[in-house]
Amino acid sequence: MPMRTVLVTVGTSAISNFARHNNGKSPASAKELAWYLRQTSPREASAETNSLSHLLREDDRLVFLASSTEEGRLCAGALRELYGPSRCRIEEVPGLTYEEARFRMRGLRSLVSKLVELVEGEKRLEREVVINATGGFKAEIAYASLVGLLFRVPVYYLHERFDQIIDLPPVPVSWDYALLAEHRDLLRWLEEGGPRPAREVEQRLQGRPEELRLLLSSEDGDQVELSPAGLALFRAFEERWAEAERVPVYLSSRARSAYDSLRGADRSQVDDLLEKLRLPDWRRSNARHPENVDFLTAPGGRIGWRLCFYEDGDGSLRVLEVLRHDDYERVLRRGRRRADYSGFTPWR
């Protein structure tokens, strides 16, 4: 069985339960709290120990995600002491505090960013990764579950009144990634630069779909950034974009001749289309199958460039034609077939 990493959101139930069993006294240190956790049944000790008692394997690695509070650090430290420092590490989430505005904007974004960073890192090391979203604020649990669903990672949750842990399997939940592909420039600008001036964001949103506003948030009305959910969606899209970049694209001799003749903005526009073509979501939203031909064309509309293509049995994409709109109409009228094209070479 492959090594597994369990990402654990950490709350403060251990401190509350300690106080309840010690006449209201608070633990003085992580060691004292860990001693309490050892002496108490997992179900009674804390939300984390209760859920891990149902989930933990002998060789699992544990990463505890702690809030930026003394209580959060104390609980995470006690859990590391309990399960053994050699198999555990603590990741503090900046901004995850009891201050409402800071929690809503900085804290949840930081949580999403940290979870995505950890999930991607474990996947690169070819380790199995799961999220235990039982501990912490309810909003933490919600966003941890969203990250798990978007990144196709199992999420586990155990309510204090349940006897069995709930498994939220990595189902194929997705946003309209074709929309994100069309506006990747804007989203990358927002994601990489931190909060942006609202006036500048409004200028860049002109002429773009209103749905993009669902991905944005503003703390004070003057600065705009990706919301916690928007950040999760965009980072999941970037993962799929990276996967799509591995899809081979081949140009027929006719497509190659047309492509090599392009310069400047025309070359950039066609390169952009060929990159998006690799993304399954973009093809599903933009490709159509005209009559009289045995291939697909994309995108739609009456201006710009068109690609005529098909997906080969080996998963590669075969681009038959790179055409302006008027030339595209003529090709369709002639009723060309895949067999009319040959001389395929890699796009790049």
Summarize the structure.
The chain is of the alpha/beta class and 348 residues long.
- CATH architecture annotation of the largest domain: 3-Layer(aba) Sandwich
Structural class: alpha/beta
Largest sheet geometry:
6 strands, mixed
- β-strand percent reads 15-25%
What's the alpha carbon Rg, rounded to whole Å? 26 Å
**SSE series:** EHHHHEHEHEHEEHHEHEEHEHHHEEEHE
Q: DSSP helix count?
A: 15
The residue-averaged pLDDT reads 90
Low-confidence stretches: none
Give an overview in words:
It is a single chain. The chain has 3 domains: 4-168, Rossmann fold (3-Layer(aba) Sandwich); 177-244, Arc Repressor Mutant, subunit A (Orthogonal Bundle); 249-346, RelE-like (YaeB-like fold, 2-Layer Sandwich), CATH 3.30.2310.20. Helix 2 (30-39) packs across helix 5 and helix 6 packs parallel to helix 11 (228-244). The longest helix is centred in the first third of the chain and has 25 residues, at 100-124. The mean pLDDT is 90. It has a 6-stranded mixed sheet with strand order 3-2-1-4-5-6, with helices on both faces. The protein has a 5-stranded mixed sheet with strand order 11-12-13-10-14. The chain has 348 residues and is an alpha/beta fold. It has helices at residues 13-21, 30-39, 42-45, 47-55, 70-83, 100-124, 138-150, 177-182, 184-193, 198-205, 228-244, 253-260, 264-277, 280-286, 325-334; strands spanning 4-9, 61-67, 88-93, 128-132, 155-157, 166-168, 196-197, 216-218, 223-226, 249-251, 296-298, 305-311, 317-324, 345-346. Strand 2, helix 5 and strand 3 form a beta-alpha-beta unit.
